[in-house]
Amino acid sequence: MSSAAKTMDAGPLVAAARAVLASGAAVRVRDGREACLIQAIDGLTSERFTLLRDGANGPCRLVLTGERTQHLGIAPRSTGSLAMALPADIGFDAVRGLAEPGFEALAGEVRPGFFAAASEAETAGIELVKRAGLLPAILSTSESGALDAVLELDAALVFAQAESELSSLVRVVETRLPITASESCRIAVFRSPIGTADQVALSIGNLKESLERGEAPLVRLHSECLTGDLFGSLRCDCGLQLQGAIAHMTDEGAGILLYLRQEGRGIGLINKLRAYRLQDQGYDTVDANMHLGFQADERDFRIAARILSLMGVKRIRLLTNNPDKVRIIAQHGIEVVERVPLFFAANCHNRAYLQTKLEKSGHFLRVIDGARGSKGDVASDLARILRGGPGEEIGA
Ligand SMILES: Nc1nc2c(ncn2[C@@H]2O[C@H](COP(=O)(O)OP(=O)(O)OP(=O)(O)O)[C@@H](O)[C@H]2O)c(=O)[nH]1
Ligand SMILES: [Zn+2]
């Protein structure tokens, strides 16, 4: 198949495969050597598990990421996914315990014996369930008499999905959107047939004139955070950063806010909340992600570079404390002429989270206690930002 044909096919097939897996049904994934029936474990029912196990012509394999097997202590450290044959009489609870944090006790003494690198088809299965917002854990069988696949696709299409999403992204609509902070604001929405969500760009103030003058605009790449952006969660700093970025831009007269649909650093809302539960048991934000089977950060910032290119923006001043954002944007055709810090005083609920970003993720932060998390402190911080002044920066 030519790469152009792959790109064309990838949209409908990969998007449909994600939806099938999320709905609890199975897909068949082919690689050069085999075809596997793939079933997500997240959301699997006990009845369906029994059908799959008993109907399989051959061993039923459990596939987990190296992050998850390392945390379970059942396999050596591995960067790729690992597959293991399940004992023929294994029960549903034990499988759930291996796949889902918080349920490990159900696995009891069950320890799958033989680990091998997952096949290409199985690795593609893990990619699909991750992008469907499910836990990265699947069952794979060579064939099943009892269950059939809703659709079949090549592993290569799955591996091409990120590239396909980038190249097929188009601006679908743009319109005026006066907002509280700036009556002179426009919103544009970008869509890809293969994407999991629409991407949003706010152009604030006199952006067109600023670009015509050759200026590098202030840009914020803001990853979606329902809990912080909408509900004002104190567990993170997202809400203040969102409002603070807009305030910086209105203060300067122009700017671009990309609202990237990367909830939970790319693991989705449900998995972020699962990570919060683990953090309440003592894991930090990085370890919680890995315990769930994800990398510390699953975001792909190339999409932001692509949107900026589609908007005709080549040089920017980036509002961030995250070195990865600067590095990846710069590697993908956007010149970052300056990094502008964007942080606020910590509160008692997000202090450890910010400290972990500083120590483990290399963010340019100084974590200074400010608001203690009481309603009054945080509300007045937000009110100051909304008045239009720049967010208070603590430290350089
Ligand atoms: N998995 C996970 N995601 C989290 C957690 N806390 C916040 N998030 C998500 O992290 C993302 C925060 O992203 P940003 O604020 O854009 O990025 P950043 O990496 O902190 O970098 P800057 O804010 O630009 O300095 C959002 O998608 C949140 O939903 C957490 O404990 N676990
Ligand atoms: Zn947040």
Automatic annotation (TrEMBL):
Cellular compartments per GO CC: cytosol
UniProt keyword annotations, A-Z: GTP-binding, Hydrolase, Metal-binding, Nucleotide-binding, Riboflavin biosynthesis, Zinc
Zinc recorded as keyword: yes
SUPFAM superfamilies documented for this protein: RibA-like
UniProt-listed InterPro entries: GTP_cyclohydro_II, RibA, RibA-like_sf
GO MF annotation, one: zinc ion binding
GTP-binding keyword on record: yes
Note accompanying the cofactor annotation: Binds 1 zinc ion per subunit.
Broadest EC class assigned to this enzyme: hydrolase
Domain GTP cyclohydrolase II residue range list: 171-341
Catalytic reaction equation(s): GTP + 4 H2O = 2,5-diamino-6-hydroxy-4-(5-phosphoribosylamino)-pyrimidine + formate + 2 phosphate + 3 H(+)
Binding site for Zn(2+): C225, C236, C238
Pathway: Cofactor biosynthesis; riboflavin biosynthesis; 5-amino-6-(D-ribitylamino)uracil from GTP: step 1/4
Superkingdom assignment: Bacteria
Catalytic residues in the record: D297 (proton acceptor), R299 (nucleophile)
EC code(s) of this entry: 3.5.4.25
BP GO annotations: riboflavin biosynthetic process
Record-listed GTP binding positions: R220, L221, H222, S223, E224, Q241, E263, G264, R265, T285, T320, K325
Cofactor: Zn(2+)
Function: Catalyzes the conversion of GTP to 2,5-diamino-6-ribosylamino-4(3H)-pyrimidinone 5'-phosphate (DARP), formate and pyrophosphate.
Family: Belongs to the GTP cyclohydrolase II family.
Official protein name in the record: GTP cyclohydrolase-2
Native source organism of the sequence: Arboricoccus pini
Gene: ribA
